[in-house]
TrEMBL record:
Species of the source: Sinorhizobium mexicanum
Keyword Transferase listed: yes
This protein's name: Class I SAM-dependent methyltransferase
Listed InterPro entries: SAM-dependent_MTases_sf
Keyword Methyltransferase: yes
Keyword tags: Methyltransferase, Plasmid, Transferase
Amino acid sequence: MNRLTIEHWRNAPRLTSFAAFFERTASGQGGAPDLAEPQLDMSMLDFDLEGAVFADTHRRLWGHFDNHYFASIPYRLEEECRLGAAILSFGLRTWARSASPTTIYTLGTGTGCLARTLATLGNGRIKALCCSPTAANRTSFFANRGSEHAHFFHGPFFELDDARYATDEDLLPFRSGFDVLLEDTTFQMYDRDRLKQLEFVVPRLRPGGLLVQVQKLAHEDRDIYEERERQKDELFKSRFFSTGHISEKKDEVLNTMTDLQVDLVTTIAALRAFFRYSVLTWNSGNFYTIVSSNSRASMVELISLMLKPAIPPGYCYENLPVAIVDTEVEALGPDLTWRSANTMMLLAPRRMAS
């Protein structure tokens, strides 16, 4: 990556105007929900056993920033557990086939709770890395690491270059690349140029590897975008944050962040430059989960390990799953199917009744 691009990212809002907000929120000095804490609704996961196991471990590893994050995006907590359980199963299958640890990198995921959960449940079969430029996130990570197989890099994603992997001993397990790389609402804090950002991270994927992205996308119709934002703020965030808190965050972070979001058409064009396949697997208002790979087998396998999206229909505006990048010769087509829930039958009726 050229020096000018790196310097541009170094002067981006995430490391300048947003830095104080993230440090304050991650340290527990601000940004926390002031009305209620987010709680997982297992009924939306059909009381699935794998989802319950993942969610139980995940909740024990939360840091300060996780409370803020999961109260800010409608049903993102349910999606984290749905997606995390699928990635865990994919990682264990990958380990079993290769007889070596699966490597997973969660790029820009705050306290690294997802990475720590995967490493904990993988118990040596999965090695996970996360990064954050926020010192308080590093403190949360090591205060409740969960596993020696969870690793943290204190710095922005673009400092994890080839030279860093080659010389940093803590990064030794990841020198040969990653089986899964997850980018979570990070690119939108640095730049609008998704091609450059993908050019930096995609080479770190191993053959058959998957890129998973949680993105907040712009919309060609500004009125539609704003209506979905009102739905998020007035119907979901208002359960956890007072009106004053919601307004403060808009003024401090969200209004600037909007300028660096791109729409779905731009996203597809960037992904098509690197991948044969990309699929939308979740949608909540202006937020999307997108899975991409050059391996048809990996795409089908991960998606087949996912439950159906755990979100009320009124928040989902897509008919999922839907391929947005595909090939004519080996199209994904009808092979995109969700798995059935491994429902805990004795538990589900009791919780539903209550």
